[in-house]
Amino acid sequence: MRDAQIADLSGAFRILRYDRRGHGKSSAPKPPYDLADLGGDVLGLLDSLKIERTHFCGLSIGG
């Protein structure tokens, strides 16, 4: 869905795309989980990649 934007933005930004729990090829623990869990997943990903500062763009629950 974001392929056109990725092509335009990748010249100026390092782009990281990820699958939210249970989407794409990502695994997911058994529910329930809430928005705080999903936000924690993003923070954990950024921490593991040693990304200290970012611009974040998402759609619907991904934003």
Automatic annotation (TrEMBL):
Which intervals hold domain AB hydrolase-1? 7-63
Q: Which Gene Ontology terms cover its molecular function?
A: triacylglycerol lipase activity
Going by the UniProt record, its keywords in alphabetical order are: Hydrolase
Q: Which GO terms describe its biological process?
A: glycerolipid catabolic process
Answer whether the UniProt record assigns the keyword Hydrolase to this protein: yes
> Which Pfam families does UniProt cross-reference here?
Abhydrolase_1
For this entry, the protein name equals Alpha/beta hydrolase fold
Q: What is the lineage of its organism?
A: Bacteria, Pseudomonadati, Pseudomonadota, Alphaproteobacteria, Rhodobacterales
